[in-house]
Amino acid sequence: MRNLFALFACVLISTHISAQPNVAIKRIDPTNWWVGMKNQNLQLLVYGPGAGTLSYSISYPGIKLVKTSKVKNPNYAFLDINIAPSTKPGTCNIIGKSGTKTITRPYLLKQRDKIIKGTGVTSADFIYLVMPDRFANGDTTNDKFGDMADATVDANNPVLRHGGDLKGITDHFDYLQELGVTAIWPTPVIENDEQLKQEAPDRMQAGYHGYHFTDHYKVDRRFGGDEGYLQFSKILHQKGIKLVQDAVYNHVSDEHWMYKDQPTKDWFNNWPVYTGTTHKEQALADPHGAETDRRLLVDGWFTSFLPDLNLRNPYLANYLIQHAIWSTEMFAVDAWRIDTYKYNDPAFMNRCNQALLTEYPNMHIFGETVASNPYGLSYFVKNNVSFPFKSNLPGTLDFPLNYAIVDALKQRFGWDEGVSRLYQTLAQDGLYADPMKLVTSLDNHDMDRFLSMIGEDFERYKMGVTWLLTTRGIPSWYYGTEILMKNTRNPSDAEVRRNFPGGFPGDRDNKFTSKGRSKKENDAFDYVKKLTNYRKTTPALHSGKLVQYVPNEGIYVYFRYDNNKTIMVATNTNDKETKLETKRFSERMNGFTRARNVMTSETISNVSTLTLPAKTAIVLELVK
């Protein structure tokens, strides 16, 4: 009888144990944190089978678990903790209990290192935009991994991965420094562990560009992983170059772990049927705009395979903001570029921007807002317009100026055409709180190459380069434009994202060296190099005041000046040489009798009349 009772008891115990849920904690995000941060509050996302069913506690001096929040999905819990200023670095234990089951997960609180983060980029900088997969392959051993969803690599196929990585960029730091680069902006390096996507009926596309996140807290191993990015940042800062990180808040890949197991029903902007964004930013700034159009812009999906994040969800908002701060602290990020800015919930973006600026007051943040005119662009940045919503974004990519430069080079001069477009665009700078914080460009990874846009005209190329590097703002530069890389987006964006010649095994030419470049390519490289390096050492040119004059018969003149120096930029957009009488510009030229041509070093002994060759912009340092 006793044996029968014992057997019955064992069965009961066994049944009770097997009835316990198979609870586990697979991850805690952020993956670590730091003591001594200005914001003492942190919200941890705890994830794993049944993680939301656990009761949590934390025992560590200075750490207080303020609140545990559960959501409908039992695999998630959100822990609000407070980290007192006196808290010491170390490892605290996060303890979860369910019945007799106890799970303990260590959580590291680091000491902040002495590397300064968030130094920002300014108008004194020259930003180099580079797509790591297409620039150079520094480590062929990380080209592909069998346990990743996309294990294809083919440097000859324009839409697949090519194998470029962060080490490939560091291997060519000397090239970049020779060019005058002071900041590097890589397209996103966060993991894109996804299958090939159907880009067109007859074409697949890989996530080589980096904009399809699948795990925010992993740097893609094919770029070098976390350690590779840490080393990249370290070497970069040792060289005196700043790091700009590319953020994506609007969407993730449909293969993101969080999309496959969604925390809440409103984590994403879901529609009864697939609904794409209108891309019409006018809906936000339009005083007559309809709320329906505003919602379609912000909540519509970018593509069918990029789930649109609902940035109004408070847990998601915290998750993304903390990731931005974590990345800044972990990788010593100096500035942020925000992808697809106009599609993001405006209130969330203000909160995110402010959180970064509170922690890093010198941080520069600039958004990607493709807007056709300055009024539309000004809505998304600090401005002087009485919009009902006031953005706190410090800077933005200046697409209207980009379009105006191209039009000025392609169109014949007229009242509103040609170089008048450039003048009129800059004349609207009063819309912006600080136009010097706008990031300017000639092209980027989503546009036709600059040289192709202007008909491969080398003289017009030099004019555009001159305007970019001598007008107001923070110039950014797309890799390869300095060696006359060309192409259009037909049939896909991959055509304007071709490999930098010399960066990949088997390349016939190495255009990282002067010997590998043609004469015209060297002329282009040397032109950019000379002007960027002069700009770097001339505060009047990169940070001085701007005065421009109304263009007349295709001639456009403006000045950059401070108390120490005055620079004159005079452009003849016509096909014939002309003589320019400078009496009209006396308010800026009074007292100056001579000049030095910055690009040729020629001395001009009399500046009362200037000779302007056809299709030329000259840069003159005025001398009394």
UniProtKB/TrEMBL annotation:
Q: Which residues form the Glycosyl hydrolase family 13 catalytic domain?
A: 129-535
Q: Which CDD domains match?
A: AmyAc_bac_CMD_like_3
UniProt keywords (A-Z) are: Glycosidase, Hydrolase, Signal
Q: What SUPFAM superfamilies does its record include?
A: (Trans)glycosidases, E set domains, Glycosyl hydrolase domain
Could you tell me the superkingdom of the organism this chain comes from? Answer: Bacteria
- Organism in which the protein naturally occurs: Segetibacter aerophilus
The ranges of region (Disordered) come to 499-518
Q: Where is the signal peptide?
A: 1-19
An example GO BP is: carbohydrate metabolic process
Q: Which InterPro entries does the annotation name?
A: Cyc-maltodext_N, Cyclo-malto-dextrinase_C, GH, GH13_cat_dom, Glyco_hydro_b, Ig-like_fold, Ig_E-set
A molecular function GO annotation = hydrolase activity, acting on glycosyl bonds
Q: What is this protein called?
A: Neopullulanase SusA
Which intervals of the chain form a coiled coil?
none
